[in-house]
Amino acid sequence: MKEKKGSALSCLTDILNKAFFIDFAKGLKVTLGYNMSKIVTLNYPDREKWIPYQRWRGLHTLNRDPDGRELCVACELCSRACPTDCITVIPMEDDTGRGIADRVAKVWEIDLVRCLFCGFCQDACPTTAVRLGREYELACKDWSSTKRDRQQLLEEPEIPETLMGGVYKASFVFNKKEVKVVPDLTKKRKNFW
Amino acid sequence: MSENENIEDREELLSTKKVTISMGPQHPSAHGVLHLILEMQGEKILRAEPDIGYLHRGTEKIAENLLYHQFTPYTDRLDYMSAMSNNMAYVMAVEKALGIEGDIPDRAEYLRVIVAELARCASHLLGIGAWAVDMGALTAFLYCIREREMCLDLFEMISGARMTCSYMRVGGVRYDADQKFFDKVRDFVRILPEKLDEYNKLLTGNRIWIQRNRDIGAISAEDAINFGFTGPNLRASGVPWDIRKDTPYSVYDRFDFDVPVGEKGDCFDRYLLRMAEMRQSLRIIEQALDSMPDGPIAVDIPDVVPPAKDAIYDNMENLIHHFKYVSSGFTVPEGEVYSAIEGPKGILGVYILSDGTEKPYRLKLRVPSFVNLQVMDFLSKETYMADVVAILSSLDPVFGECDK
Ligand code: SF4
Ligand code: SF4
I need a surface site. Which of B54, B233, B239, B339 has the fewest CB within 10 A? Predict the structure, then answer.
């Protein structure tokens, strides 16, 4: 008897809930509540840019020692470690002090469309010459820009390795030559969590 | 008699013609690159046949040509919604083949459990979100993605990649975690339950969501077992089968968690189950954080895990190990192993046949999405077009994994 009464009551509340759109009102309360809350999105690419955390495995960089000598000794371990065979290293002899040893790379080229960004090359390199940097805007229009050679990779990376990741102010550069988001590394803002 | 024939004739005229339409591979509410061939009469489905293989990359074949440790990044690309779990399944299989599965340091195992459970949350969040957007609830999708983004931030912090993590290695994990990471994970464990309550308000009570999912695509426990269902889809039918609990691997036996089960096995139960499972995952993560041991993050077997970088410069022995590992990997004793984990979508099994060299002779992946998908025809029969979308979303297939 009691049970029946309970079910009749629940039936009634059910009908009332439906008639007054209580379920929708509850949902709307959640969404309207967000009108006043903090913004969780980034204004990318126009004003802000996400600089990844330090372990980020992005575009490779080739590095130099403090004296400016190339760290790469062309041992070809990176190309052996690579699961996709996308690194080409051709060694040569050079005793003019270009590298830290007499053996330097004549060609050091990477095919980015094959790269998995797994970081095995970085793990394999005995001299920490190749490291995966924090450049991640790699979209391009033609095949020629999918390959990077030694000269390009040796350039100083835009984001220093010691910089902490986070949201930075940035400006959007869009012209015939390049499409790029240039971060301002001095202006950081807190992420949403 | 003649009257009867007349009636049949008239019905023939009135009835709608049978048509075959293709849903996908570029349909907005078909998951990934699934091509569903639907034979329909009006709105009614007579037959639904999944046509798979658009994302086939020959992953199993690739494995035969790679050293054991080189294959890890490829497992990221199976179920790309939860790369960490795939890594774990693979490295655990290789460890079993090497016979070192008992030697993995505790810290490595705990870190593995944490990231695997985070991956489960990330996968379920996207599963529910994509399902909601297929049912027309865009808001829930955006909210789910926001929380998933937190998971991905955590992955980025610990492994250096958001989706293709390659975090685990045979014998342990690749990078150690610092206090900052643990603090962030704690934040996440605190934030997610509140957000799950929000989804509850948006979806669970919503009458459109209920009507689109309640009693749609119901499958009995017996049928579910016969179809080879695993994971949340099986548990939604009321079978409490979770190999984290039933045949514990890694360190799951040290944690206290429940295995939620559904009742009817319909789409709505599958949704509720995923929500409940995320809360259990958070429980596991919290316990793992509380009892996180110190110590090494990989086994001390130089053949399998080469010495750390800074140790190779002044020790010839270490340098040789490093060169040996990089240039020719390690050998795995002859034999065959099968090892499985409870992935976010079901049981993810890896079978390795080794001929005693550095490369697997044959590698077979038992992927849950592929097995779960075969039920499409059975569940969609006699339902309507709109229900097919709900059923498909509730199975939560991922095609990187299904097509391999
Ligand atoms: S990141 Fe991986 S795939 Fe890319 S070059 Fe290095 S080893 Fe090869
Ligand atoms: S980058 Fe490192 S691993 Fe590759 S050839 Fe140069 S020194 Fe050897």
Answer: B54
Complex-level ipTM: 0.84
- Domain boundaries, position B199: 59-299+331-403
- Nearest chain B Cα to A27, which residue? B202
Amino acid at B182: F
User: From the CA of B87, how far away is ligand 2's center (Å)?
Assistant: 27
Strand order in the sheet with A147-148: A87-93, A103-111, A147-148
For A59-157, CATH gives 3.30.70.3270
- Tell whether B11 and B100 lie within a shared domain: no
* Residue nearest (by alpha carbon) to ligand 2 atom 7: A72
pLDDT band at B352 (very low <50, low <70, confident <90, very high): very high
Which pTM was predicted?
A: 0.87
DSSP letter (8 states) at residue B16: P
Do B170 and B246 lie in one domain? The reply is yes
Task: Please indicate, yes or no, if residue B83 is contained in any of the structural domains.
Answer: yes
Q: In this predicted model, what pLDDT tens digit does every residue of B310-343 receive, in sequence order?
A: 777 788 888 888 888 888 888 888 889 999 999 8
Instruction: Tell me how many domains chain B contains.
Output: 2
